[in-house]
Design a protein that fits this description.
109 residues; mainly alpha; 74% helix
């Protein structure tokens, strides 16, 4: 994500890259097919995965829908939108990684 921030991409390529990073993380972390589906298909499928908390689902849905607006509806994001997208992506990954780390500690204890 840090490399993407400094790559100097236009909005569509930036959001495509950021969305791809998050989707790839989701596939690796939760074993949910995310890269080969539309956002709608993915959001329907991920509801069946018990490892995603409701708050994570909401944040993820908001992020992916915002990315789709830029990628497909040609929405022109402001600098604040870019910063918010990065923040949402990092927060989602951080929050779900903490869950993994906590479970790992509980098992070890």
């Amino acid at each position: 994500i840090e490399q993407l921030k400094t790559a100097g991409l236009d909005a569509q390529h930036f959001y495509t890259g950021l969305s791809s990073i998050v989707r790839t993380y989701i596939e690796d972390r939760f074993d949910i097919a995310a890269t080969g589906q539309t956002t709608r298909e993915f959001l329907i499928a991920e509801k069946e995965n018990p490892r995603l908390e409701q708050c994570d689902r909401k944040a993820l849905a908001d992020f992916l829908i915002a990315a789709d607006l830029v990628k497909f509806a040609r929405f022109e994001p402001t600098t604040a939108n870019w910063d918010e997208a990065i923040e949402h992506a990092i927060d989602f990954v951080s929050n779900t990684m903490k869950e993994l780390n906590q479970k790992h500690v509980e098992v070890a204890a």
